[in-house]
Amino acid sequence: MSAVILDGKALAIKIRESLGPRAAALKAKRGRPPLLAIVTSERPDKAAVRYRQSQKKACEEIGMHWNTLSADWRGSDDLLRAISGMRDCDAVILDLPLNKSIAIEELLAKLPPELDAEGVTPFNYGRLFEIKAYEELQKRRLVAPCTALAIAELLRSTGVPLAGKRAVVLGRSSIVGKPAAHLLSCLDMTVTLCHSKSSDLPEVVSSADVVVAAMGKPRMVKAAWIKAGAVVIDAGVNDDGGKVCGDVEPEAASRAGWVTPPVGGLGPVTTAMLLSNSVMLAERRG
Ligand code: NDP
Fold it and tell me: From the CB of 120, is ligand 1 less than 6 Å away?
């Protein structure tokens, strides 16, 4: 058996197509399109530059404007002043890592939640963990961390019935693993969240119908651990001598039912979910 490859590019196009008319409606109502502020370090690494380019291209594709804020900030207050000085800004993304002068926790605590395009301010994060059902995200017009949303959306795109199935999420970061585990539980899955102190990864993974790997550990998940027919979503982006490799051995595709490719899987959907959050914030602003 060979797994179906989860086509993140195709799903991202579908999401952007649904956002274009919403951005156009905002432009018609307010006389200007939604505006995303992209805050970057003055000396971004290669990955940050790539991510920023994909954000700008995706904005243009749905008719949304973007503006880059890049400077050697003297601290969080300096950066926040620059953000509040941007007229008509609807949403802000912080392309980490920022300059060393910025204390990220302090910045997130002060960033207005209504501009938080990544759902990472304490207020938005708390609201996310209040919900029990996935549909409440839209009903309450909540924003959530983009990669976690992308994981849930790719999973839903398979059409596999999820309620009551077992999922394992490998990695418990605030930005990926933890919110992804929460969203999977909102999709009524029974979720196990693993981390670096978990001692029984092979057993846990082999009993899972859905495996989400978000550790940043190249090929750590062995093909032999994967249950036949499982859905495998690999968030890992690792450098393998200049090539990108995931956290899951590629041979897993011979056992799994669905797998994400290392390129063109989760990445494009993550960018699409950033736009989705941004358009929602702009709509909330009116
Ligand atoms: P972090 O380094 O913040 O978190 C890694 C997590 O993996 C931690 O919870 C850690 O456990 C856990 N971990 C580390 N080693 C092991 C192990 N041997 N067994 C089990 N768990 C382990 O990374 P991020 O969450 O920010 O990113 C994870 C991966 O996802 C990276 O490769 C990153 O590049 C990628 N990424 C991809 C995105 C995309 O859009 N595709 C977006 C964002 C990230 P502990 O908590 O105990 O330390």
Answer: no
